C-alpha cells in the first residue's frame, strides 16, 4: 500500500558512500519505508544525493515534496577533502614561539617499528603560520598582554596571502578566550568574507596541539562543506523539498546544515556514525541493547560496539591517515588528530569493491584499495579490470547475476571468472572457486579482527552481544564472521543495504559543550563543578533554541573525563543522576571511574588520587522515532518465498570439492514466524544474505532475520 500525502509527515535520509548513495523515505505515522540506491558520483557528490531523493519521490509518487518534514544527510565530503589534500587555503595564528606547532605535531607513530613512516604534511604550510606576542598561564591569567601593533601587521600579512580561512589557537585559551576573540575581530574587520575558527569556540580543552589540529581542520574544510551543503540545499529547493536540512555528526546526533557549515569538524565521520546509530536503535527496539554493529559497504567495513543501547563515544581518533585498527576510529596516531566526540569504531579497507591481488611474495591479498563506484568491480561491466570481493561472491554462486540491485543491474559472471582466473587462481595454482573462496576468507579474517578490536580489546566478551549486519555487502559475510568471532546470534534488519540511511532518521539533534578542570577530586570545590555544568546547560539551551526546530525540549547528558593522578589520558564517565552535586555524588562518580578503568585496563587503583580533567555536556533535542511496521503475511512455511535452488560454494560442507544445491528465498515474501536452516540464500533488492550450514533463521514480526548457531 502506498501512503498518501495526508497520511502523515515524511522524512528522508541520504547516506553517500564510496560506491553507492542510499536514500530512505519513512512515513512517520505508519512506519512504511521506501528505499533507493544509486551509484555515487565521486566528482559531484551532490548529484548522487539529489538523484537518490528524486528516485525516492518517483518510487513513492503520491508523496509530495511539501510533505517532507526534514531531510537528514550523512556525508564524507569533509573526510575526502582531507584525504585527497583538497582542503581550502588556510592560515594559522598562534602564540609567539609556537609557530611550528603543526609541523612538530606528535612523536607517536601508528606502527612502532615502521622506520618508513612519515607524518602527513601539515594542512597549513609554515609560510602561512603566524605568531602574535601574547601569553596566558594555565589558569587563564594574562602573563603577556596581546600586542595590538604586532597583530595588525599579522592581519596585513594574512590579507596579502589570499587565504580562504583562518584558524586561531593561542596558549591556554580554553581558560580565557579574550585574546583569541580579539584576534578574530581584528581579522574579521580586515577580511569580512574569510571563514575564521577560534579554538576556544571549537574545542575549549587543554592540549595545545590537539586543539590546534582540530581548529585547523574545522577552518580548512569549512569553505568546502559550506559550498557543498549550499549546493544540496539549492537542489532540494529546485526539487520542491523546502524542509529543514540536518546533517549527521560523528557522535551519532544531527545538527542543522547552517551549524555544519560553521563547525564541519563535528561531521567528519558522519557516514560511519549513521550505521552505528541504526544498529543501536534497532537492537534496543527489539530488546537487545548490547550489539556489535557491522556495516560493510562497497569500499570499507565498519565495526562498533553498543552497550545498553548507546554506541561508545571517543575523542581519540585521527582523520586523513591510513585506515587502520586501533584506539579510536583510525588508531589515533595516523593522520590528523581531532578532539571532537565520535562513535568509537574500527574501519578497515574491506568492502565489496576491495581489490584482490597477489603480492611479490606470492601471497593472496585483499584491499585496502577499492574499485569504488567508478569503474567498480569487474562484474559491473563499467571498465573495472581487477577482481574484487563482489566478483568472488558472484563466482561462488552467492550472488545472482540477474538479480543485483533488484534486477536493475546485470552482473557479468564470465568476466569476473576470467579476472579471478588470470590474476589470482593461475599465479597461485588454484582453481577459480578456490581462489574466490580465498579472497572472501582473507577479507573475513580482517573483518573478524575488527570485531575483536571493538569487543575483546575493549574488555567485552563477544559472546554477550548480538551481531547486527547491514550495508550492501554486510549480510553476505555476517554469519561467517559471527561464526569465527564466537558471536552466537546475528540480526539482519529489513532493507540492510540502506540501513545507514534509515539510521539518520532514528537519531536526535545533539550539541556538545565542554570545560577543562584538571583538578584532583579531593581538592576541588563541588560548587565549581555545579557552576560549570550550569553554564554549559545555559549555552546548550541557547543553541537548542536557535538550531533545533525539528526536535522537542532540550535534555542534557553530563559526563566527566577522569584519570588517576599522574596518568596521561582520561576515561569518560557518565555523571551520577542525582539532584545535587554533593559528596555522595562525588563518591558515586569515583566508584564509576574505578569500574570503567577496570573494564578498560583490567585493574583498579582505589588508593590512588583521582583527577577530574574535563566536564562534558551534551544537549539533546529528541526527534520522534518512526514506528517499525509489522509484516502483513504471517506463517511458519518459508517455502512460499522460494525462488528455487542455486549451486553455492560452502567450504565447510563441500570439503572444498564443489558447490551445494542451496535454496534461494525472496525476502519480501518471507512470512513473520518462518523458520528454516542453512545453507540458504535470501535475496532482496539492496543486498543478499548468505546463511551458512548449521545456522537457523527465524523471521520476526517486523521482518528482521534472527540467525542463531545450531549448537
Describe the secondary-structure layout.
Elements: E1 10-16, E2 20-27, E3 33-39, H1 45-59, E4 68-74, H2 77-83, E5 90-95, H3 101-104, E6 129-132, E7 135-136, E8 142-144, H4 148-160, E9 165-169, H5 178-190, E10 195-198, H6 199-202, H7 208-238, E11 244-248, E12 254-256, H8 257-262, H9 270-285, E13 291-296, E14 301-307, E15 310-311, E16 313-314, E17 317-320, E18 335-338, E19 342-343, E20 345-348, E21 354-358, E22 364-370, H10 389-395, H11 413-428, H12 432-454, E23 466-470, H13 474-485, E24 489-492, H14 499-503, E25 509-520, H15 526-547, E26 554-564, E27 571-574, H16 583-601, E28 610-621, E29 642-648, H17 651-654, E30 660-666, E31 675-677, E32 680-684, E33 687-691, E34 695-699, E35 705-709
Parallel strand pairs: 1-4, 4-11, 5-6, 5-9, 9-10, 13-23, 23-24, 30-32
Antiparallel strand pairs: 1-2, 2-3, 7-8, 11-12, 13-14, 14-15, 14-20, 16-19, 17-18, 21-22, 24-35, 25-28, 26-27, 26-28, 29-30, 31-34, 32-33, 34-35
Helix pairs in contact: 1-7, 2-7, 4-5, 10-11, 10-12, 11-12, 12-13
Amino acid at each position: 500500500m502506498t501512503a498518501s500525502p495526508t497520511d502523515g509527515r515524511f522524512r528522508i535520509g541520504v547516506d553517500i558512500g564510496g560506491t553507492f548513495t542510499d536514500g530512505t523515505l519513512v512515513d512517520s505515522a505508519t512506519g512504511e519505508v521506501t528505499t533507493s540506491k544509486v551509484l555515487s558520483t565521486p566528482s559531484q557528490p551532490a548529484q548522487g544525493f539529489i538523484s537518490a531523493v528524486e528516485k525516492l519521490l518517483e518510487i513513492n509518487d503520491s508523496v509530495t515534496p511539501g510533505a517532507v518534514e526534514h531531510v537528514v544527510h550523512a556525508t564524507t565530503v569533509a573526510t575526502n577533502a582531507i584525504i585527497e589534500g583538497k582542503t581550502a587555503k588556510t592560515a594559522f595564528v598562534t602564540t609567539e614561539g609556537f609557530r611550528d606547532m603543526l609541523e612538530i605535531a606528535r612523536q607517536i607513530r601508528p606502527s612502532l617499528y615502521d622506520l618508513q613512516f612519515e607524518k602527513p604534511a601539515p594542512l597549513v604550510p609554515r609560510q602561512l603560520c603566524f605568531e602574535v606576542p601574547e601569553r596566558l598561564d594555565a589558569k587563564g591569567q594574562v602573563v603577556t598582554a596581546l600586542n595590538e601593533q604586532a597583530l595588525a601587521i599579522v592581519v596585513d600579512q594574512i590579507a596579502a596571502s589570499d587565504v580562504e580561512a583562518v584558524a586561531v589557537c593561542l596558549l591556554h585559551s580554553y581558560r580565557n578566550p579574550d585574546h583569541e576573540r580579539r584576534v578574530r575581530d581584528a581579522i574579521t574587520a580586515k577580511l569580512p568574507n574569510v571563514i575564521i575558527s577560534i579554538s576556544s569556540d571549537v574545542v575549549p580543552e587543554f592540549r595545545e596541539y590537539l586543539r590546534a589540529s582540530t581548529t585547523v581542520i574545522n577552518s580548512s574544510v569549512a569553505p568546502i562543506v559550506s559550498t557543498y551543503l549550499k549546493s544540496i540545499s539549492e537542489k532540494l529547493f529546485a526539487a520542491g523539498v523546502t524542509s529543514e536540512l540536518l546533517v549527521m555528526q560523528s557522535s551519532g546526533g544531527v545538527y542543522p546544515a547552517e551549524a555544519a557549515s560553521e563547525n564541519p569538524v563535528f561531521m567528519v565521520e558522519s557516514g560511519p556514525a549513521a550505521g552505528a546509530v541504526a544498529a543501536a536503535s534497532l537492537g534496543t527496539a527489539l530488546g537487545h541493547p548490547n550489539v556489535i554493529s557491522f556495516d560493510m559497504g562497497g569500499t570499507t567495513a565498519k565495526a562498533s560496539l553498543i552497550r545498553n543501547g548507546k554506541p561508545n563515544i571517543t575523542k581519540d581518533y585521527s582523520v586523513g591517515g591510513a585506515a587502520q585498527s586501533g584506539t579510536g576510529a583510525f588508531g589515533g596516531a595516523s593522520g590528523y588528530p581531532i578532539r571532537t566526540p565520535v562513535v568509537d569504531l574500527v574501519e578497515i579497507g574491506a568492502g565489496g569493491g576491495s581489490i584482490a591481488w597477489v603480492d611479490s611474495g606470492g601471497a593472496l591479498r585483499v584491499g585496502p584499495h577499492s574499485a569504488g563506484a567508478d569503474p567498480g568491480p569487474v562484474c559491473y561491466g563499467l571498465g573495472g579490470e581487477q577482481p574484487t570481493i563482489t566478483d568472488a561472491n558472484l563466482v561462488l554462486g552467492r550472488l545472482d547475476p540477474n538479480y543485483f540491485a533488484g534486477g536493475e543491474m546485470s552482473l557479468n559472471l564470465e568476466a569476473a571468472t576470467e579476472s579471478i582466473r588470470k590474476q589470482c587462481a593461475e599465479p597461485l595454482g588454484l582453481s577459480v572457486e578456490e581462489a574466490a573462496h580465498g579472497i572472501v576468507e582473507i577479507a573475513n579474517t580482517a573483518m573478524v579482527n575488527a570485531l575483536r578490536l571493538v569487543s575483546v580489546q575493549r574488555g567485552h566478551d563477544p559472546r554477550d552481544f548480538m551481531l547486527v549486519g547491514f550495508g550492501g555487502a554486510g549480510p553476505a559475510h555476517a554469519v561467517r564472521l559471527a561464526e569465527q568471532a564466537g558471536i552466537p546470534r546475528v540480526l539482519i534488519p529489513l532493507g540492510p543495504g540502506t540501513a545507514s540511511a534509515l539510521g539518520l532518521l532514528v537519531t536526535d539533534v545533539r550539541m556538545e559543550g565542554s570545560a577543562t578542570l584538571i583538578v584532583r577530586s579531593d581538592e576541588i570545590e563541588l560548587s565549581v563543578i555545579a557552576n560549570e555544568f550550569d553554564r554549559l546547560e545555559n549555552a546548550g539551551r541557547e543553541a537548542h533554541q536557535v538550531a533545533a526546530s525539528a526536535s522537542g525540549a532540550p535534555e542534557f547528558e553530563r559526563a566527566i573525563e577522569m584519570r588517576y593522578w599522574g596518568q596521561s589520558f582520561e576515561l569518560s564517565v557518565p555523571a551520577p543522576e542525582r539532584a545535587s552535586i554533593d559528596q555522595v555524588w562525588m563518591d558515586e562518580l569515583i566508584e564509576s571511574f574505578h569500574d570503567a578503568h577496570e573494564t578498560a585496563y583490567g585493574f583498579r587503583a582505589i588508593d590512588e588520587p583521582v583527577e577530574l580533567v574535563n566536564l562534558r555536556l551534551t544537549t539533546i533535542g529528541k526527534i520522534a522515532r518512526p514506528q517499525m511496521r509489522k509484516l502483513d503475511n504471517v506463517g511458519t512455511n518459508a517455502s512460499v518465498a522460494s525462488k528455487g535452488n542455486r549451486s553455492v560454494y560452502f567450504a565447510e560442507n563441500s570439503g572444498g570439492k564443489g558447490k551445494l544445491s542451496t535454496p534461494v528465498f525472496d525476502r519480501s515474501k518471507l512470512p513473520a514466524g518462518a523458520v528454516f536452516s542453512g545453507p540458504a540464500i535470501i535475496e532482496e533488492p539492496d543486498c543478499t544474505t548468505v546463511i551458512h550450514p548449521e545456522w537457523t533463521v527465524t523471521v520476526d514480526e517486523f521482518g528482521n532475520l534472527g540467525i542463531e548457531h545450531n549448537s
